């Protein structure tokens, strides 16, 4: 499942100069199987439990094929009306299926959803909207001038730091977590915002996480949201992985308080049977996004945009151009039905519980985290954990990844792939026990 | 070719609530043809001459299908070695085919290529690298603090302004153009850089354009490049459309001086038979990119990255995750051969010349621009041009788009689609003459 290859092996296997003459697609297919596939880490393999998953499904793959064949570019409504309106429809559908507030739907008239390539891009877009609001538009011409602040915890995804950096804000301000929980401390956030205001700085955006990468911690969105409303600070909630769980009513509590957020993002490509890239981002204030990002040179003018009656997704994202992004999500939602997607979530969570149960019952193993599809565990000593990790990283038949919990090394297994089943869990567990001996 | 639909027609045609039950792929395919395809603007239609093209080809579509099916995520070398190394190989291939300097190749050891989603993202990445260099890393923690400056002309693509804004720099500084040419005036740039330094500001990045969107103007890269070297300012060259032309030796002069650039971007999805997104960006200083964007939490640690012997493309782009981006460019380059891609460029340029010739010969028409595949023209009076534009925008059988040249409205036709032929040109010209009468 993970390839046995040294750095540079493909570099030397392929010609160093480009082909002058055309070759047949048959030759390409043969070479794909001969030289490319053996060098891939197979993210769709059942025993791939690394990182968070990247999903796919027959419906998604078929839709990608059709999307590529149609080859339309939906930067504006006028450049393919159905591409834009389908995205409005499916993001409204998904908002309903996930239990999001009406304000996040296009049909509300003030909010709506958009498909980004990644949770990273969602952070950048949310930050632009936040700066637009906090600066009353001044940021667009004057830059950030070292005055605006972003806040998150140290457990936020690396894309939050990267987003802050790329937006010219420097490092985000790290807010303390409630002891032993990994959850942002709202009182600490409040104090930091007060201090920053007193120092003449402008608190602009808080990024809260629902389901952190390391331990699947959930920041207290209700408290943070009330604080952000009171302080007029943009609240972006990143639920890249865990957000899909709220398809099921029994996990809706994960997004308590989400109506207080200004924007929210879930990676359908992580846990909703949709191929990457498919990050779905919603906002309740689309004017802040478009005010921040709209630029209209003469070559993009058109009657539909001028009428103000349409959505132009170019103003909701970093790039200008965009493929038809919604078709695959439309295919996935209809081919599975919301019922099918819900059952998939429950199936994956049951498998995680199965592994967690095996770990708990095993002497010399310690279960650190079991939340949704995430299982994090360690051995009795850190040396034993490190030894297990290095053996696991050398085993080509499965993939678990390293992490650390409370400063101690740990092993991380994430469920959410459609191809994992109970037999896989038994196999993975058998390998883990073997490597631990 | 352009759909006859009112804003909101798909919104009302589709159910407002998501489907609870699964449906068959057959139903989805039928609905795609019934409700989606009629609402698309068909970018692959022969008479689509709007904007710059978005290409595709059988090889590209097949590769997208395979990419979706394999479903790997190549954020790091270790998460799919062949995905990363294939991207190193094909960007090196393309650098050779386009006549780029060795310093832009991975094999040089200091530079290399990466596939971005868009020229916009390439600007953002180049800006991050430029800020890293100009601030000696200080920007990463302290933000832009209103001190760093970006420069371009008013003819630069809208993504340059958007990039500057998103990077926290405010508006880019607009440098005057040489009279009647649309080309950046290097003396004006030099004077502005001097003024900014005198004011305590830090000139960080110049974005020059090879082939502007409106008139296909080419900034004088040799002069700008020498100035940037002398001033230690990052030079990014955006050749999103025109860059593909240098596949042919007779157009290599377009990139004279490119060895002086720090980064360079060409959209293979515009004019190289490759589906969107496929922006190829090269740099001669990859350390500036990775120093700017690398963040390594424990869950991304792995022995290959720690060894320093591999490329991790997550540090060359905005998002963390990425699909296997190189497969379709590999397929396109091999299925066409560089010879085939060259012939495609020449074919498209011949068609543009054919239309330009017809316009020149027609009383009451004035040819404003004829460069590579771009033809821009106007009628004898601005009122007549505006009238022609509005009739063209209402004609569903072809697409030309509006622009302005020297403050006067004009019609823009861009060639570069594989499906346009001489018959198309005759048809389009017949419609234009009819609408003009």
TrEMBL record, chains A, B:
UniProt keyword Transferase, yes or no: yes
SUPFAM superfamilies: PLP-dependent transferases
Cofactor requirements of the protein: pyridoxal 5'-phosphate
InterPro entries linked: Aromatic_deC, PyrdxlP-dep_de-COase, PyrdxlP-dep_Trfase, PyrdxlP-dep_Trfase_major, PyrdxlP-dep_Trfase_small
Pfam families: Pyridoxal_deC
A GO term, aspect molecular function: transaminase activity
Keyword list, A-Z: Aminotransferase, Decarboxylase, Lyase, Pyridoxal phosphate, Transferase
Superkingdom: Bacteria
Recorded family membership: Belongs to the group II decarboxylase family.
Protein name per its UniProtKB record: Aspartate aminotransferase family protein
Organism from which the protein derives: Streptomyces albospinus
């Amino acid at each position: 499942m993970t390839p046995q290859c040294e750095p540079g092996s493909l570099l030397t296997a392929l010609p160093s100069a480009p082909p002058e003459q055309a070759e047949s697609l048959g030759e390409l297919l043969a070479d794909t199987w001969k030289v490319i596939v053996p060098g891939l880490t197979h993210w769709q393999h059942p025993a791939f439990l690394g990182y968070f998953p990247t999903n796919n499904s027959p419906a998604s793959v078929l839709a990608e094929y059709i999307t590529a064949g149609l080859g339309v570019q939906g930067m504006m409504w006028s450049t393919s009306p159905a591409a834009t309106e389908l995205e409005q429809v499916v993001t409204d559908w998904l908002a309903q299926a996930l239990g999001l507030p009406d304000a996040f739907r296009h049909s509300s008239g003030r909010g709506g959803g958009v498909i980004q390539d990644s949770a990273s891009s969602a952070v950048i877009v949310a930050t632009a909207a936040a700066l637009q609001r906090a600066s009353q538009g001044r940021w667009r011409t004057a830059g950030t001038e070292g005055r605006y602040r972003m806040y998150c915890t140290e457990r936020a995804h690396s894309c939050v730091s990267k987003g802050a950096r790329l937006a010219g804000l420097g490092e985000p301000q790290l807010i303390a977590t409630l002891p032993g929980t990994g959850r942002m401390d709202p009182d600490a956030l409040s104090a930091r915002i007060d201090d920053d205001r007193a120092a003449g700085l402008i608190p602009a955006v808080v990024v809260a996480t629902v389901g952190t990468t390391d331990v699947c911690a959930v920041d207290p969105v209700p408290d943070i949201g009330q604080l952000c409303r009171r302080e007029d600070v943009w609240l972006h909630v990143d639920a890249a992985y865990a957000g899909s769980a709220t398809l099921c009513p029994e996990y809706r509590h994960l997004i308590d308080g989400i109506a207080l957020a200004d924007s929210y993002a879930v990676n359908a490509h992580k846990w909703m049977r949709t191929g990457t890239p498919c990050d779905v981002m919603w906002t309740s204030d689309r004017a802040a996004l478009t005010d921040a990002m709209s630029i209209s040179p003469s070559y993009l003018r058109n009657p539909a945009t001028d009428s103000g009656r349409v959505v132009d997704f170019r103003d909701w994202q970093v790039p200008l151009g965009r493929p038809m992004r919604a078709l695959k999500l439309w295919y996935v939602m209809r081919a599975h039905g919301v019922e099918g997607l819900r059952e998939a979530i429950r199936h994956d969570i049951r498998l995680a519980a199965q592994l967690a149960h095996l770990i708990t019952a095993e002497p010399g193993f310690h279960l650190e985290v079991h939340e949704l599809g995430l299982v994090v565990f360690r051995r009795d000593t850190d040396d034993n954990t490190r030894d297990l990790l290095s053996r696991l990283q050398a085993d080509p038949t499965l993939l678990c990844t390293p992490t650390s919990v409370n400063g101690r090394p740990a092993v991380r297994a994430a469920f959410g792939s459609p191809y994992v089943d109970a037999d896989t869990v038994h196999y993975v567990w058998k390998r883990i026990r073997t490597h631990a001996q």
